[in-house]
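Bug: token stream looks shifted between consecutive jobs. Job 1:
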Amino acid sequence: MKFVHKIFAAVFLTSMSIVIIAAMSLSWVFEREQLRSFTARYEALAESLAHTLVQAEKNTDILMKNAALVVQAKESQNRGLTTQELKNLANLTGVTHVFLIDANGKFFRSTNEDPDLIPNLFFI
């Protein structure tokens, strides 16, 4: 092998080594930046969804509390609402069903089915 070929091989191998190291370094930097960017976007989306769910839960709680207060007020005025009146109140307040329990925790009135068929977790 001639001296010129040895110099060419040395320069070529050195240049290729530098190019490969630079390419690997840039690839690592770009990969890390993409991962950081993806993580930041995912965290922002997760935070937004969590906030939306918390707001929906608060709004649902307020709706349910208001519906319970309306039913309580109507019950205290009329002393015994009929099932149809309960259904009307449910429609008026925006809830799907109203269940009433007595002081012992036993269901005694429901807007959707016979209270004896409802599994009762309050009274075991």
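Job 2, same session, no restart:
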Amino acid sequence: MATKKAKNLASTRKSEGMRETIIRAATEIINEKSYALATLTGIAATLDMRDAALYYYFPNKQALAYACHRSSLERFEQLLNKSDEAGGTGEEKLRHLIRSMLAESAVNGPQLYFGDYSYLEAAQRKAITEWADRLKTILIRFLKEGMADGSIVQCEPELVTELLLGMLIWMAKWAPSVEGLTVDRMMNAFDALVFRGLERGHTLSAKAHPHKA
């Protein structure tokens, strides 16, 4: 009996591992080609699998894409919680989150971020929207904490959150094509574009930098 249970457990773990492998490959292909152009045949081919084997794990492309969104949200939520637990100022939490997201994606592959998911069923769209909104609320809180503790300039946190997520969405699409890309290089880019604009000491003013005709 113990041997049978051990075999079943090993089989379950193997199945879960393959499911995660499929989700990672599908996420990369959807990010690269879009949902409309991604095909189960193409996803299976990247894994040297037959289409029939892929259907064992996911009945159709829509179900696979939904699994990709859920997996990405789970990963993002874990990183958000860890950044929150790390403590510090609002800016420090935000820096921790972005660096950890870049590092985690370098190891586990890109996430299917809060992009378009109109192709999902109504119940699936509702679940993803509610989950994403809940996670955005945490990110908004980081910004508000930074505004309160003085590490982040006064801004519209809801709008800034959408801009940050938009940057990360596109990062997943074009960054892999940049030769020799590292987490440090990506973080330096975020630092130059985001944090030097958010940090109070680097706030630009119209008087300091007048427009040149």
